[in-house]
Amino acid sequence: MDATLLDAEAEAAVLRVYRQVFAVLAREAGAMIVDPDLLDVDQAILDAFAEAGSDGLTVEQATAACGSYDHDVVVRRFDVLRQYGAITKLVDRPNELRHRAAFAPYVMLMFLRRMSVQGGQAELHQLLTLEHHSVSDPKATAEQGQASIERLTKVFRLLGNELAILVATSTAAQLRENAQLAWGNETLIEQAEKVHRIVLERWPELHRVCTALRMSLAAYADAVQTAAGRLVERAGTTRALGLLPIETWLTFTRGSDTEVLAGVLDGLLFDAAAPDFAPETLLEAVESGRRTGTARLAPPRSSGDDTEAPESSAAIDRENLRAEAERVLAGRDEVSVTEVVDAAGDWITARRVLAELTAAHLHDELEYELVWTDGMRIDPAAGTPWITEGSFRRRAS
Q: Where is the segment annotated Disordered (predicted)?
């Protein structure tokens, strides 16, 4: 009976903390948050309790402390946190007005913030470090070693499954949004293998569960390779600058000179005269742009068929770019960008022409180049008020 009561008490404690933690996600009892602003409201409420000290807060004091948010929203979130046990009465009596807050919801908020920025990599590294210390403890038992191996097996199975599904069913854009799942994978696998070696050396009888961990690590590594292959392929054709983790860009910017930094943007066209586009719209436009080097092969034809094979789409695109370049040059070897933009009449038309010239410049089978200089023509009366100076010309052979 005592053992049963102890088990029930332990389960009740786990449920209590679980409800407190996930209170920061509940829009109302039994529901989940769909508006990220509500997380900020939760954090403001918990911040107010942290500042209040041991005296606690009433509902009115909490709403006053969160004056930058809508009063009704704060009251509603306060009730949700209270229903989930994240906020409780200071003293459990009917007419008690003051409340106290548990620390678990705030920890959950911190965890969510870090997860959104780092994709859970830091937490996974910490988990692996804890498991390493656990199985290295001289007092550790075979049961604890088996539990560690089984936990890691499930973690890497879930990671590998998620990546494999993303590779098989998602677009490159969706895969890029989840690219953090593949960051630091070599270090993660090495840490897991260290835990595996320790457990196998200390408890050889656990070779079966260790084999399961090795299989999950191999599946995760394969999924990472496949995902990375798709991302690299897509980045190579679109030059999408958002595919690399922020740490890589920080290292690059700190260790590069001006010329190298400017080279990153070489060949990219920026719409400075009409900056009313969201970054997501510009990114989508870049990714859906012209792809070079991916010519489709014509279907096989019988040797007896004398009909001329149709040109590939890449060849058609190349010739279209050549025709546009020759139209702009009009028999000359070089034309200024200012003249091209002014001849277009308006920026919308000029932007399309410049995009075509940029594509011709980047095409490895065309003999044209677009060269920019440091000057700028500013003319308020012109159709396009400011134009970066440069020239479009035939590339010297």
A: 288-314
